[in-house]
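S1.2 Input.
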Amino acid sequence: MAVAKGDKIIYSKGFGTTPEGTEVTADTPMYIGSVSKSFTALAVMQLVENGKIDLESPVIDYLPWFKVKGFDASRIKVRHLLNHTSGLSEETYFPVLPLNTSLEEAVRNLAEAELVEEPGKEFNYFNPNYQVLGVIIEKVSGISYDEYVKKHILEPLSMKNTYLNKEEIEKKVTKGYSSFFGFPFIKKEPFRPYGLPEGYIVSTANDMILFLQAHSNLDSNQKILSQDCFNQLQTPDSEVKSNYAMGWQKVKSSKGYTVIYNGGDLDTYHSDVMIIPEKGYSIVIMTNQNSFINQSVVYDSLRKAVIDFVLGNEERQAMPEIHKYLIIAGICTVIFIGYQLYLLVFIGRWAQKSKHKKKICIILLVFKDCCIPVILLIVIPKLLSVLLERRVNLREAFNMQPDVTTGIIIISVLFCIKAVAKIVVITRTMMFAERQDTIQRGGNYIE
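S1.3 Output.
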């Protein structure tokens, strides 16, 4: 974590250990996730300022081969990509690309993506928008994305511990921590070259403070962009209902101050970067452990608490005791799974008790067991997708919250097995009862 007031760093400290066992400091390299988009947006605006990119020009002016499925790609402008208003969405495009996929290959693959809205009409967070911007930067500048960012952003700002090269990143960062019912475990975090402009830059808290100071101290000697272009970067699109600007969000603190903010998440890393222009503060929070619950509850509370603290609220704020609740949830999950296994093992007893029930009652009991997997595996992910405004499938859910997802999958499988077992056992029990009844009446029974 690091905090600066104007051009001076007033707090810089690390906590905990890396998966390799070394102490975390403010100079420990970590993935910054979607904060990478802030670098890409800055690079684009530099090229705009130099007259090499026009925000109102269509993407195909720079990438003539650019295509999307079933739509005239010439209507998608550079500005739409920056504001996430391209009309593309994870609702219709959420591929799993091979790790060795290049940036240009990933963008060419967008020929399979369908629009969900007219460009410029609605905000839809879509990571590949910034992959397209990365390729535009390469085509316009004549050098690779990582070379451009290093030459025009990292070197002028003396960001010596920020990495974009595959070999350097894989030497510095290979693993992080995920969480299983409150207990951290080490997990591999693979580098995806095609995701570099939107989520795979590696940096440190101290380096990121330098990056934020360049955005907030606009009268300093270290100018990498004009004030007008910085203002454009940090101003949300007035045409849509969103606080998203260009690689940044504009929100309000609890005390009413403007906060220029961006956050990033990978499976095992989380980062928050904040600028409070009216007070001159820059704040960086980076962690090497992540999960969906931590991201939604713990880190959100931490970010707000740190903002309030630097703005003068010195009252210590309690963080959500999510660890305790996750342990309790884990115990309850194990007990519930054990109970379902018990019911499955003694399914014959249920059949004996149910053989005299009406058929409609038995059908409803089996139907209930069939419905629960549908609700857990299909309905809940759909509801989460609507709530989060991005697609949530089992693969992504397992990567971001393996404990809950594992529990859901096991419970769903058990209910499916139980439903099939009930059908088989009750059918055999009823056939046996019918045969016995026939024998007692002195008749013949034919199987």
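S1.4 Remarks. The mean pLDDT is 90.
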